[in-house]
Write a structure and sequence with these properties.
Radius of gyration of chain A: 27 Å
Number of helices of chain A: 29
Structural class of chain A: alpha/beta
Helix content of chain A: 40-55%
Distance between the termini of chain A: 26 Å
Bound molecules: iron/sulfur cluster
Number of domains of chain C: 1
CATH superfamily of chain C: TPP-binding domain
Radius of gyration of chain C: 14 Å
Number of strands of chain A: 23
Strand order of the largest sheet of chain C: 1-7-6-5-2-3-4
Oligomer: heterotetramer
Shape of chain A: globular
Strand order of the largest sheet of chain A: 12-11-10-7-8-9-6-13
Largest sheet of chain C: 7 strands, parallel
Structural class of chain C: alpha/beta
Helix content of chain C: 25-40%
Amino acid sequence: MSEHQKVKIEKMKTDVIDLSNVIIEIGDIEKEWDEKVGPHPKPSMSTLREWDFKLLSRHKPLYTPVCDECCMCAFGKCDLTQDRKGACGIDLTTQQARQVAMYAAIGTACHAAHARHMLHHQIELCGRDYPIDLGDNVEVEAPIMRTVVGSKPETLGDMEKALDYAEEEITKVLASIHTGQEGNHLEYESKALHVGMIDNLVKEIGDIAQVVGYGMPKGVPDAPLAELGFGSLDRSKPLILLIGHNVAGGASMVDYLKKHNLEDKVELAGICCTSHDLTRIYDRGKIMGPLSRTMKFLQAGIADVIVVDEQCIRTDVREWAEKTGAPLIASSEHNVQGLRDRTEDDPGEVIADLVEGRETGAFILDSDKVAEVAVQTAMAVKPRREKLRFLPTPKEAQKLAKRCTTCEACHRVCPVDIHISEGMDAAKEGDLSVLAGYRELCVGCTRCEEACGREIPIIKMIETAARDEIIKDNYRIRVGRGPIQDVEIRKVGSPIVFGEIPGIVVFAGCSNYPNSTVEMAEMAEEFLKRNFIVVVSGCAAMEIARHKDEDGKTLYEKYPGDFDAGGLVNLGSCLSNAHVLGAAIKVANIFAKRDLRGNFEEIADYIYNRVGAVAVVWGTYSQKALAIGTGVNRWGIPVILGPQGTQYRRQFIGRKDKPETWAGFNARNGEAMNLEPVPEHLVYTPETKEEAMVWIVKLCLRNNDTPKGRMYKLEHYIDIHQKYMGTFPDDIDKYIRNKADIPLTKKDQIMKILEEKGWQPREVPDPTIVERLTRKPKAKEAGK
Amino acid sequence: MSEHQKVKIEKMKTDVIDLSNVIIEIGDIEKEWDEKVGPHPKPSMSTLREWDFKLLSRHKPLYTPVCDECCMCAFGKCDLTQDRKGACGIDLTTQQARQVAMYAAIGTACHAAHARHMLHHQIELCGRDYPIDLGDNVEVEAPIMRTVVGSKPETLGDMEKALDYAEEEITKVLASIHTGQEGNHLEYESKALHVGMIDNLVKEIGDIAQVVGYGMPKGVPDAPLAELGFGSLDRSKPLILLIGHNVAGGASMVDYLKKHNLEDKVELAGICCTSHDLTRIYDRGKIMGPLSRTMKFLQAGIADVIVVDEQCIRTDVREWAEKTGAPLIASSEHNVQGLRDRTEDDPGEVIADLVEGRETGAFILDSDKVAEVAVQTAMAVKPRREKLRFLPTPKEAQKLAKRCTTCEACHRVCPVDIHISEGMDAAKEGDLSVLAGYRELCVGCTRCEEACGREIPIIKMIETAARDEIIKDNYRIRVGRGPIQDVEIRKVGSPIVFGEIPGIVVFAGCSNYPNSTVEMAEMAEEFLKRNFIVVVSGCAAMEIARHKDEDGKTLYEKYPGDFDAGGLVNLGSCLSNAHVLGAAIKVANIFAKRDLRGNFEEIADYIYNRVGAVAVVWGTYSQKALAIGTGVNRWGIPVILGPQGTQYRRQFIGRKDKPETWAGFNARNGEAMNLEPVPEHLVYTPETKEEAMVWIVKLCLRNNDTPKGRMYKLEHYIDIHQKYMGTFPDDIDKYIRNKADIPLTKKDQIMKILEEKGWQPREVPDPTIVERLTRKPKAKEAGK
Amino acid sequence: MNRVRPWVPTAITGRLQGMTVGPAAIARTIKEADNPILIVGAGIMEELEGRLADYAVRMARARDMPVAATAHTISVLHDRGIQVQAMGLSDVIARLQDPEWQGLNGRPHDVAVAVGIRPRFLNNMFNSLKNFSDVRTVSIGKHNLPNASLSLANLTDDIWEENLVEICEYLER
Amino acid sequence: MNRVRPWVPTAITGRLQGMTVGPAAIARTIKEADNPILIVGAGIMEELEGRLADYAVRMARARDMPVAATAHTISVLHDRGIQVQAMGLSDVIARLQDPEWQGLNGRPHDVAVAVGIRPRFLNNMFNSLKNFSDVRTVSIGKHNLPNASLSLANLTDDIWEENLVEICEYLER
Ligand code: SF4
Ligand code: SF4
Ligand code: SF4
Ligand code: SF4
Ligand code: SF4
Ligand code: SF4
Ligand code: SF4
Ligand code: SF4
């Protein structure tokens, strides 16, 4: 990294000086920041390896290979089954870890490139000196950057160096994937954790850049409600559908509409994170839904113009845009779709080409031009298009169903295990209700259609079957609020650490799991009612919004947006989910007065042992979700994945039955001791939502829980266990350190169990897993 | 990218000024360079897409999928056979291109991380201002950087920004691999070409840094000869075996040996590129051989200490080090092998642990400590170790052979198709000669041993069988000379472009193909004799050295090292193969006076149409080799891969039978016309070396060949075709533009063919495929 | 290598595929195992209108197998009067790979029998055992799983139920 | 899906595998093809002590198939007196995927028959045709290739030669 610059000034004139041809050499000039630098500013790939190895010795990787072969180099394919090694010497365990690191690097690269683009764009719009002002209530503006990079950004330009650092680390991790390097799986896991931490960092930078530059809500708890769902659209207006994650194009459209007084004339709606970010800057922006809804909207042809940016977009979007006659605009280098580059062309010409059908799409890298072309084209083509006409009628659906031979090819490939032919059977008889019932389950992956030898348009038929519901689909979601305010941290720091708030549950990432709407909403509400802080972002936040109670209210309408007990906090897009980690860091900083600067290990140790947070990525699918999860893992935050998370190939499983794996220290006196087996796992894939809920509460346990905190947490644990498992948990003795921990309401029952198990009270240490952080360091450690 | 800096100077005092607390804002200050900036400095991922699409419309991707499924996200695995799409919408064609881009990104990341480390290391050693001085004969010091980045580095520090740029681009390409983006294979091919170009750039930076910093040969044609092969070792001395690519550790060892007068006492030898670079700084360094020899040396236990750095190292090196009792030192973050981090420990302590066997290895990130520990440990353990004792005796080998059931499991998995059981059958009878014969074929991948149910140590038996030869293995190789000098370019520019030098053949990359020694050496000599310039680097350069003529001379002893007709130019390690591309660029710059700065497209168009260079990566296996090849492809240089190159999944195949695919322009008048179908392919995998040789000469044809040049090239083409194919080529009419092109010696025969084919003379244009570069640009183009 | 196409066509992970067998072979393997463990997943509550739970219980009883109740199956099994250990599937799979683990009944398990777990999920989990342990795996779900050492062909509910009955009866013999 | 294990155990690329057949089925397919092309690789010079070249020539003659001589086989084939087109394997494979290509004899080929090409190399190349063309592929090499529509089992030289004779005789009928 080059903090160091040598500069030649040919001419310089200010009020005080006038000089020419001076060479100035500048060393490592840092912004003023009186916090002392910790041991690990800008950690390199192996700097925090010891920390990782500590986590990995407690939570051992459990590998579920998706493939027993390796095809990564021209030596391959190699058969790695059982204990066979590949031609480079690698074994299957190491290969799994290598793939995890590779995919985590891809996810991180996405966020890094996104952040780079956004920062660059904001610097162009606002200038390099534009201050990072997140409002009066946010002083610790970039907790992750402070901790990891060791610097405190004051302006947009100040964040560029941190991205240089991030890109260098991503490159290193990617380099390590090359054939012929690590032969030990833990090394690759450490690299995955490292690149995951970089993912946290770049997301924070990207979101701060857009919050500041676009003036998105700055951590306001009472962010407004936005509309979500097809039913929220005024179908008489032209619709521009934004798909992807980078709102730059959408933001320019908002400007364009406002400038030309067209806000009333055009609907702007988005799919995936770009829609979150759209609603953060535009109160009339609509959210169509998460990734899993994309294909349904594409096939139904609801959009008059489709604008794609980057990440998690159907790769066949061009095909469907063409089939439904919607001009397609590609606005990102990451997803050009073979379209002709019109960036330098006159927008009028491009619009004419699209409207008159001479071309079906355009690649435009200038967001202002994207805006003009999208809006004008949408207004011009709308009159010619009729919504939903691409779906079959119920009659036609019945006829189509009759083609079905009940061969089950579709069912076999359906990732969410929908028994499609049953729906077809009913449809043959004219009963579309079974198909309609699949709507919430189906994630629109088209795999069934690809497998069907009878060319049955399964998704369209489901949509037709559920037509009436779709048109009514209209939900309220709280707009993404961005960071958590320092004042909120001050307020909740103590109840979190001392236990009145039993935990922070984060629902993040994708929603490609059957019934994720209902399941995630149900889980969220369970914990809202229990006074947990429930934080959401990305597709998960949308999915949760698609669930209404009997009164027609979504959870966002029922629970406040405060980062406080019983609050339902929508951070926004996936970029903004960095702020929940930021909040955990701020607890350490603001509440516990731990220094952040270059002090990763201490902060992570703090969170791991003290902040009862757990992330749930229920409908996981993407490499980004893997990076996000692996990132928070490094800070000691456990992640629960939906069952398809086994496709990521690796979990981190702790063994509460092996006390020796929980080695740590009592920070008060430096004494080595086995700590409690909490949090038990760092990555876990439960089978059902019921099991997930038990794990959510259990993974909020922390070594440093106060008696009151522990008592509350155990009360919820027992209660949830009884509610969903139907039994009293059998491991309660493991978590009761002394009588003060025992929930009062269940005291008798527990005491009986404890007696049966021969339970003895235990000392409650000031827990840490880093010897250096103890107060009486051993001689050897001290010598370092 | 942040060229822009805002700096606060608290105190500054020079002879002329004295000031405090001044804020200086610095814009894009560039080093003085009066060359005008071309259209594409620091091209972003899609900037050169149109250029790529031109190449790709001429040389269409031919995909050979290694797997018909995709397992890259948690949605998978998806079945992509035939026209099925995955759950993200991707099809198999696009998926192949996506994988190519991903693996090219991995290869590039390796070189980028290597270059970053090396530059950082040299800056630490020599200072940021250390001048880039490549000697009097090299003025154009960094032709790739000049062309791609548009800047001219004067000091080590000047190259850092270029690496920032490179890392940003690698991150972008990696980001584009994420699920849900490109749905068009050409887009991913363009991204692969882009990241390949970045690979060229970072290799150049890395090699310049080490050439300058370590004082390696600076493009001297008569670089000294080094020794290669096991027989070159003094086995009475302790041997430190360096494996990998990054010579930082080796360089420190050289310093250490010199400082402590131990040069006579210890042997330093390397495997893979680190050994090339070792001999570039140390005249007593030995080269053990390429990657394909690694396992043989490991199993034989020849090393007293093994030091690994990064890339292309057996991942199970630790296992073999332990089995043979050789302490292992890991010196790179990329390859830590689960070893304890001893970077901060006292070297004496580490040495004691290793020598006394308390630990089997150490991870040390400080190259000076690595040097001390390696040297001292080697000297201490040597007396206890006996070389080669890990190999079975011939008697034992016979006994082992008797275990063989001729099940053929080994033969099936052998990537180079060795019929091992035949060797075993002979060995059962005491005849080890058949096994011995496998030695040159075997690439030491151990796959046979992994497959063998009888636990037969096949490689060791081959080594035992070939024992006598191995001990005699002693070859001479010319030390890597680094860049090509400007004076050489001045000398050869005209003969290259005008044809006296029929072409430049580059043998680069790996050597994991059966008989690659003999085959590569044979091919090299064929072209040396024909007055081609033959350039070598990496493992290929070593492999070629392992071939002696009847007089016991290697090609390096028979041919001069000049970059000139009949010269055999060893550039050095894989990093240094950037210089051959550099040489092609310098032809455009020095000979043809084309501006380089930010002028990629014009330079690539120049090379593609004028510089008859072709690269051969015969024993290809690595992701780096893919990146290297894809990189030169973007500049219009064709690449020939060995047959296992199909494992890379993609070739670029031209169609000489489709004239319309060769559209271009006559630069003289801007006229659009179909150019000649040359070079026909950009990536091609021939079946045999004979076929390869025909392609080598044919792929040196260029549109702009002068009559004399074309005549020479065709003479070689016909001659080689007759020699190896046994026939006169049937497509000669395609390459004769008018009678002046006809080789005199074959005039009659050719005239007959031309008459039969109804040949007509054709205009010879000033060829270009970029309309903008023509002299009478069309009105529309001009408007741009 | 003669086997039916796995239920999930892409479930094959490589060269090494388990066998497709009938109920007799499965029953025999369970019976002859040294110390089998029965892993019972959430599907027992829904499949065959809940009767799958009854079959699971019958097998556990007949063979006297310790039962790991994954997901939230514990009370369903308790209700049917057998002693089970609640344990997440990942926990079971991780422990089965640990040579030190003394099983649910004080000694290592050599065979893992699973029922009531989604095929994709189980196939992935069993691959972990296939590659990283010596434990043999048996699926008695109605889908064919290439990563199980033994699994049934892809069956209709009716035939599956017949198979389950056959397995129970064999074990009860 | 009933087939032998491919010669190269990892040569399977996915769900779609070709059939392992005997010489009769291969001969019939070649005979009944509309316009087959015979692709002859370098192996013909070494395999079966060079007799493979003779078989290739016999088949080409018997079925009157146009021949693409890949690698450096052209003169070996010329020497045996048949007209062939010298063409690299990648060139042939690329052209076979082009619906516009009019084959070696003026019309598209529907079946590609290959002999004398290393199994790994050919298996990869044939996968290109499997996925990206309608051309059916036949390998008459002695190794089983899952990416060929039809290929022989893994044979010894003796049996292979018998098969070759049988194919030749069938075609000559
Ligand atoms: S790792 Fe994935 S792409 Fe490679 S062979 Fe296995 S399933 Fe196919
Ligand atoms: S990376 Fe290793 S295991 Fe993978 S294909 Fe290459 S040699 Fe085989
Ligand atoms: S589109 Fe829906 S029904 Fe079809 S396979 Fe995908 S999830 Fe299943
Ligand atoms: S694949 Fe098609 S035909 Fe077969 S059951 Fe499904 S919908 Fe019916
Ligand atoms: S990236 Fe696409 S094709 Fe690959 S596994 Fe994921 S959804 Fe399937
Ligand atoms: S080690 Fe040698 S003989 Fe064995 S499989 Fe590899 S190349 Fe073939
Ligand atoms: S695998 Fe082993 S037993 Fe079988 S042929 Fe090869 S060496 Fe002999
Ligand atoms: S030539 Fe190939 S094997 Fe050798 S070092 Fe380079 S990439 Fe590795």
